[in-house]
Amino acid sequence: MFNNTRFPRAKKFWYMGKLYDWNHPNIHVMSHALHYGTSVFEGIRAYKTSKGPAVFRLPEHVDRLFHSASTLSMEVPYSKEEITEVIKSIIKENKLESAYIRPLLFYSFGNLGLVPKFSPVELTIGAWDWGAYLGGKTEKGANVYISPWKRIHHSQLKMTAKLGGVYVQSAISGMEARSLGYDEAVFLNLEGNIAEGPGENIFIVKAGVLKTNDKTESVLEGITRASVLEIAKNLGLETHIGLMTKEDFLEADEVFFTGTAIEITPIIRAADGSNPQAEKKEYTIGSGKTGDITQKLAKTFNGAVRGNIKEYEKWLSYAGV
């Protein structure tokens, strides 16, 4: 029923304590989350290292999964330790050297009132071999579209949680950007400042200073974002956290996305579509090529996640294949 064409090397997934073949259907069509987006999830990567596959910042991802669950008043049916072990085991079960891992907690079948009081919380975890999110753009640079849709505001929802329903807005803007010929979207917030991508944080570089924003600008403060900030400080780069105007973004020397799926991907061109009443205007970011600081950070990050830099081995949880 379900093949793994878009999920390379995925053979098994874990669901509520058991392993199932990838093509096994087991979710009822009247499950609460399917209708209302009442789910929380994580995107996690494991990388090939000399010691076998290593999961990047696994404790932090599991902690955030529980934080997100609390936002939706979920009683998680497993402990953090149990979920950690399942994540490692699903990598081994699928014989993956590197992997993208997706734990999903959701309100399942029970009732379809808006309040899921009779719908139990269930957990599923899958893993597959997933390369660069934007393919060759990871090295060459992405062309983005500044969306007219403003990011959901931090006064409206707890943006520190990865809520399934929030990503409907991400999907809409991501599809719109691609339909217009761009690689990805960029959101402004209600104040008109740069927020984030549909699933990515944003950094800018100006005169050698690295800058990103925080949750007060309606962003999810990503785990990759935190890692890049730490790497930058260790490399002696000046860093700053604060609001970024649209002008800051467009006039920067370098701009790049960060995130689990996208890792570190430069942005080299942008189209401003934030005002639907005005004609889109195209901009080249900096030199129109991947900048030196972006390259330096990406090189260090790639070495860290693959176990090649001892200083960052603290971030790795080996799956023991």
UniProtKB/TrEMBL annotation:
Q: Recall the GO molecular function terms of this protein's record.
A: branched-chain-amino-acid transaminase activity
Q: Which cofactor does it need?
A: pyridoxal 5'-phosphate
Q: Which UniProt keywords apply?
A: Aminotransferase, Pyridoxal phosphate, Transferase
Positions the record marks as coiled coil are none
Q: Does the keyword Transmembrane apply?
A: no
**Which species is this UniProt entry from?**
marine sediment metagenome
List, alphabetically, the Pfam families matched.
Aminotran_4
Pathway, per record: Amino-acid biosynthesis; L-leucine biosynthesis; L-leucine from 3-methyl-2-oxobutanoate: step 4/4; Amino-acid biosynthesis; L-valine biosynthesis; L-valine from pyruvate: step 4/4; Amino-acid biosynthesis; L-isoleucine biosynthesis; L-isoleucine from 2-oxobutanoate: step 4/4
Question: What name has this protein been given in UniProt?
Answer: branched-chain-amino-acid transaminase
